[in-house]
Input
Amino acid sequence: MTQQESLFRINQEGYATGLPVTAAVLTGEPVILKNADGEVVRRLDGGRPLPDPASGDEVYLADLGALEAGEYTLEAAGEKRKLAVRARAWDAVTNALIKGLYYQRCGCELLPEHAGVYAHPACHTALAAVWEDPSTMRKVTGGWHDAGDYGKYVGPGAVTAGHLMYAWKLFGPGCSAELNIPESGNGVPDILNETRYELEWILEMQRPDGMFHHKLTKKHFAGFIMPQDDLETEYLMPGSHCATAAACACLALASRVYRPFDEAFAGRMLFSARQAWEWLEEHPDFVPFQNPEGVRTGWYGDRSDADERFWAACELYAATREDGFREAAEKLYRAGQHLTAFGWADVGGMGALCCLFDLKEEAGEVLYTRLREDFLRQSEEALRMSRESGYGTALAQDRYIWGSILPIMSHAMAMIMNTMITGRQDMRDAALMQWNYALGLNALDICFVTGFGQKSVMHPHHRPSGADGIEAPVPGLISGGPNRSFPYPTTREKLGENTPPARCFLDETISADTNEIAIYWNSPAVFTGAYFNMISMG
Ligand code: 9MR
Ligand code: ZN
Output
């Protein structure tokens, strides 16, 4: 710890009334909490700070209990730090995380009335070439830019849309605000309007035989230019098993979600999902996607499609109630699924969401009763990791990988699901610690969401934020966070070999390996934020 660092780590966006307020204190000295009138409302003797293996810090987690709305000051060892408690404390940041996806829209103009200073002309509107036969050009526009780059990838997009749709289904009141996007006011909640922008693009990515192209990207990543200036040809890259199965799952889910709003759209999506499933049935042997020779954009390679198929079978069963899909899901489940994984590579948890909260008893003995026991057991692991961390972060010290925010938010999702089933407060409180982590209660004392908190990420690896000439980054985007695997030599050099995992982070544009943003990092944060937003509404 350097001299300038604060002794406190807090949720910099504030805390919600009715939920526990926890602060991390990097000293064993007594801690005092004063209200706006200077009265002492909490006096903690100071504890024995516990070692946090991931950061090397000694941390005392101060449990301040539930507090009334107001401005407070924490004091310890002569240092003060302001902390706020409010009703609906996380409404703004949750809405911004959804709106963050609007700023990722490709193929349309972002108008000043919706995007403010971040407005820009339409991008990537030219015809795309089919990789295997570049003389064939197709018009495929729309979707969200994946991350800091301008690529669009089917699997990651499908998972992102899945997180958003489940957030809406389960925690609607926590994520249904108007977001000032072009569709606002059309009678559909904006979270679904925004998700539809991606779904329409995913539909376009299907080939006539039912398979889905893996991605729509150029051969190389663009430089740090605005999207409308990125004019090189984009390619519909070869198809993949994982993209096909993930799109199948997401579209089957979407067919149920959108049916009350638009029957025809729902029908199109279910038709497409069925075509995808047929293709998968006809191509049972998994072939991993490889970047074609000369292509350097995102790989999103995967070792198996069994988890994507599992999610797809669950969603198709939920959408159609045809026994064949349930049987397929059972078989895939029996082969072993990681039920607390919600990322682009492993989507077993998405199937669990479908079985546990949509199908429920109708899923039957295997996919409900047995799966629930299995899920409850697997989610204990997240709680255990949270307890072993000084900061309460549910991530083992050797798991600070590229996009560490994803496993951390995934563990929050799993613990939220556990709480929904069991009503356990320890699970809920540990999940809340992950949300606190994202918003500043971490070794780095940084709020990972752009535009929020007291000290937030200012230089994400995000092309528009780097190229628009505006000092503040595009708001509502979450950084991938610390990464101990040092894929970039410059990151390794700047941080030094001995930097502890949870501190391997550079708030610098160049550091894609620690400070990129991605749509599928925003979306599990939306799920988590929507839940806590909803339960703190009273
Ligand atoms: O999120 C991906 C991460 O798990 C990988 O370790 C990393 C390196 O392969 O790639 C990440 O995904 C990037 C993708 O390949 C291209 N668009 C930006 C993504 C976020 O960094
Ligand atoms: Zn674009």
